[in-house]
Structures are given as C-alpha cells and as structure tokens.
Amino acid sequence: MIDLIRPDWPAPPNVRAFTTTRKGGFSKGPWASFNLGDHCGDDPVHVAQNRELLQQHLPSEPRWLNQVHGNKAVAWEDCQAGRPEADAVFSSQVEQVCAVLTADCLPVLFCNKAGTKVAAAHAGWRGLAAGVLEATVSAMDCDPNELMVWMGPAIGPGAFEVGQDVYDAFVSSNPENASAFKPLHKKWLADIYLLARLSLARSNIKIVAGGEFCSHADHSRFFSFRRDGQTGRMASVIWLEM
Predict the structure, then answer these.
(1) DSSP of 79-108, one letter per residue?
(2) pLDDT tens figures, 10-49
(3) First and final C-alpha spacing in the chain
(4) In 3D, which of 225, 89, 205, 220 has the Cα closest to residue 154?
(5) Domains assigned to the chain
(6) Which strand (E) or helix (H) includes residue 73?
C-alpha cells in the first residue's frame, strides 16, 4: 500500500491534494520503491506500474511538466500536447490534476478559498530565486488574500548546505532573505521553507501551512537527491472535485 501525506490546511471540501512518499511501489535499488519519475534512471516498467498505482487515487491522469528550475507557470490545458518546460501548473476546471515531482526541492500547492482554482509549483532554490511562487500567484489571477498554500516535503534547514552564490542570489534581490541563512564554516545552511514563506508573504498570502518535513533526514519515507544522488521522485498533486 502506498503512503500519502495529505495537507493540513483549511481548504474547501472540493479541493483534493496529497504528496506521495517512497513507500509501497515496484521500483528497486536506489529508486525503491514508489518512484514516479521517468527521468532518473529507473526501469520504465516499474515507473509505469507505480504511476498506475497513483492513478487509482486520482480522477484523471496528471499532466507532467518538464521541470527546469525556472519560473514559468502554465495552464493545465497547455500540457495536453506534451510536456512544456515549466515549473508550475494551474487549473480552474474540475478533475484536472496539477502535479509536480520533487526529491529535495519544495513542492508548493495552492488553492483559493472559494474552491475554484488550484495550482502546483516546483520550487528549488533556483526557482524560488527566479520568482516561481510569485509567477504562480500571478497566473492564478485572483486576490492573493483569497489564496492558501501548503508546503510539502523538502530538504530541511539543518541539511541544505549552499554556497555564497545561493546566498547572494537571494539577499541581493531582497535583504530580508538573509534571515533564512545561517553561516556554516565558509558556506551557509539555507531554510528553503522560510525562503518560500518570505516570498509568499511578499505576495500577500496569509494562509501558509506545512513546512515541517525534511526529505534529507527521513530516508525511510522520502527520496533525497542531495543525500543519495541517484534516487526517485515523489509527486505532489492537487485538483478540484466535481
């Protein structure tokens, strides 16, 4: 049986969302066992079997993105002909599953209080620095005060060691981002959850949940690229019910 993490947030009852873990699938070796990424070296047969398991919990097939650590957000309909290069997807139609894949990067799920719009964003540090969360809010085209967010499993602040280039990328654009970094010898420990919260606050989003996980620390439950190098991917999905 696969293991799902469901957001603890005050979303409308017609909004459905969850993040998968690495438990309960068919993959072997470094991808064991519920790997949903078809681009990370796993046996394609096992990935297909895992995606069939995932589909049992969804109303329609997810429209996967070609994630490039950028800031582009696309409509669900734009994914039907293929995989667009984008790091966020949004929808205002029922049973259109928005999805992103992660293994340390931060998955961020959005919905509005009316239960008429949803989105999923893939926010690694490059995407965060480039404004992927701001781009997602803009693409949803509604009052940010009407939006709420849940942050899924990502690398925690005690494990995310980065260089001066990452620090400079954030602090040069907004000095308040310095609060998300702690010095570590000649490097920094970055809090990707806090960087996301700061970004969302600047977009006037008041309801932000999640952020208590660490994909790097919890080997039994989460894939982690930083920890393992060759590894699988988890999916974070959100959609509107009928």
Answers:
(1) GTTS--B-SEEEE-SBT--EEEEESSSEEE
(2) 999 999 999 999 999 999 999 999 999 999 999 999 999 9
(3) 26
(4) 225
(5) 4-155+210-240 (3.60.140.10)
(6) strand 73-75
